[in-house]
Amino acid sequence: MALQNGYSINSTPLDESGDTTPLLKKEVVDIDDSVPPQCCSARCNLAIMMFFGFSVVYGLRVNLSVAMVAMVNGTNSQPSLNSSIPQYSWDSPTQGLLLGAFFFGYLVTQIPGGYLAGHFGGSIFLGGGVLGTAALTLLTPLAAQLGPYWLFGLRALEGFGEGVTFPAMMAMWARWAPPLERSRLMTLSGSGANFGAFVALPLTGFICHSLGWPAVFYMCGGAGCIWAVFWFILVSDQPGTHPRISTREKHYIINSIGKDGGAHGWSVPLLPMVLSVPLWAIIVSQMCANWGYYTLLTSLPTYMDTVLHFDLRQNAFLSALPYLGGWAFSVISGVVADSLLEKELLSVTAVRKIFTITGLLLPAAFLVAVGYSGCSGVLAVTFLTLSTTVGGTSAAGVFINQIDIAPRYAGVLLGITNTFATIPGVVAPIVTGYLTKDHSLAGWRNVFCLSAGISAGGALVFTLFGSGKVQKWALLIKRHDHYTGAPCVGDKRLL
């Protein structure tokens, strides 16, 4: 849809053959003949706040993975400095259920969160989701003392609270991200997940060893509450309501994406969404990518404990190392993707497919190598690090593709895709627990090879059916006067 000053809300035209059309028309510029810089801008500050927010929520998500090693009275457990800190006799399947419990709740709020954030704005849902999850985390030691069923329920409630955060992020970027800056802004904000895992895993190991595992949940929960205070003070839902944004930046964002900023009304085109092949390509590919990601996120510390026999502090640091590379590659991939689009070297569809294929196939190859690395800690850690590092490139591919095919409904779509993509978070730890009941190398080899095969399948699906063009059902539809051709006022799709 053409907007004032010649900008376009569509990232690509409907005709795939014209997919190389630039996202913004270069001959028309904003209010003072230049694009406002990102440095110290309101949109950059929003990305940084989201970055730290997702660092916190991923810390809250993964801390149990390392703390579980200290909580369970296993054969390779390290002695605690405080003998009064309890340990529990939970078998491998029970541990798998507890590690996957978070995702049972996480599944429930994805779609409602995306829908409501798209209508009301995402800041209250993102901030409230982090705050609620952090507050519940403070109760973890009490729930563990009451029994595994209580801990399972608490972790599910934490997932319930956190489930709205990623859809809320997407809904906010639909209002804030100029089309040619989408990749870098969204990958920067979302990369907080990998950075949070990188920081939280070794920090959890250090805290468990020094202060005992209960302190992990008190400190992580407190950090989330503090972040939420700054979020509610500093962040606004859209450029038009931000008290500190410059007039120049506000006009640039509004003219780039339209003054409606991607917001939608109460009704959404559900049937066209269900029948959309590109949307199903995103769903399947994200499910496949997340199988391997969640397998490592929840079970890697256990693998390093039972197979590689690292002590708690080594375990925590080496489990975190892969996520440092993933964080760096996700940020770099966003910058490179935007550069390719801005220079019109590739279409949106081509860019998303290249980054998705790279981010799924190469990690699959390295996971197979992990399975055959035996008990060599050096080889295993090297291949695991390479797998997660190159996997970061998919952040500029399938994981932000929702805003390409339907900017107006980006929050809802992310809720839908993330609901399906969370299923591996529930199933993968349970499958891993049953495949590795005897803690054998063969069992873990099956875990890694299964993850690799699923990831490769996701790359194939997105290659065949993925798209970067705006879908017809996502366009703003105007009625026109029969005689003059002028747009008519009052179409409910424009409200």
What does this structure look like?
The chain is mostly helical and 495 residues long. The protein has a single domain (38-494), classed as MFS general substrate transporter like domains (Growth Hormone, Chain: A, Up-down Bundle), CATH 1.20.1250. 66% of the residues lie in helices and 0% in strands. The chain is built from 19 helices and no strands. The chain has helices at 42-71, 92-108, 110-120, 123-137, 140-146, 148-162, 165-176, 182-190, 192-210, 213-234, 247-257, 270-274, 277-306, 312-342, 348-371, 377-391, 402-405, 410-435, 441-465. The chain is globular, with a radius of gyration of 23 Å. The protein starts with 41 loop residues before the first helix and ends in a 30-residue tail after the last helix. Residues 1-18, 20-31 and 478-495 have low confidence and may be disordered. Its main location: membrane. InterPro entries: MFS, MFS_dom, MFS_Na/Anion_cotransporter, MFS_trans_sf. It catalyses: 2 nitrate(out) + H(+)(out) = 2 nitrate(in) + H(+)(in); N-acetylneuraminate(in) + H(+)(in) = N-acetylneuraminate(out) + H(+)(out); L-aspartate(out) = L-aspartate(in); N-acetyl-L-aspartyl-L-glutamate(out) = N-acetyl-L-aspartyl-L-glutamate(in). It is a multi-pass membrane protein.
